[in-house]
Amino acid sequence: MAYVNATLQNATANPFGRMLNETLAGLKAAAARRAVYREVMGQLSAMSDRELADIGVARIAIRDVATQAAYGDK
């Protein structure tokens, strides 16, 4: 693992390595956002219509709420 860490640190010295690190960071961020989306979708989908009404969310709006939670206003 130390070799990989040293290699990644050395990779930032050249443009290709920097681009690779930025791409990997972007992929990690996208995966984290997608995980939030899936979590919110799962939790809201599991709620009854009454529970959704209590929090002011219509069942048809679950996808929109999950998208806003994960990705913000678009």
Quick structural overview:
This protein has 4 helices and no strands. With 74 residues, the chain is mostly helical.
User: What is the 3D form?
Assistant: rod-shaped
Number of E-state strands: 0
Number of helices: 4
Q: Radius of gyration over alpha carbons? A: 19 Å
> How would you sum up the major sheet?
none
Question: Roughly what is the average pLDDT, rounded to an integer?
Answer: 89
Order of helices and strands: HHHH
Low-confidence stretches: none
Fraction in helix: over 70%
Protein architecture, described:
This protein is mostly helical. It has one domain (2-71). 78% of the residues lie in helices and 0% in strands. The longest helix has 32 residues, at 15-46. The mean pLDDT is 89.
Topology of this structure?
Blueprint: H1 2-11, H2 15-46, H3 49-54, H4 62-71
List keywords for this structure.
mainly alpha, 74 residues, single chain, 4 helices
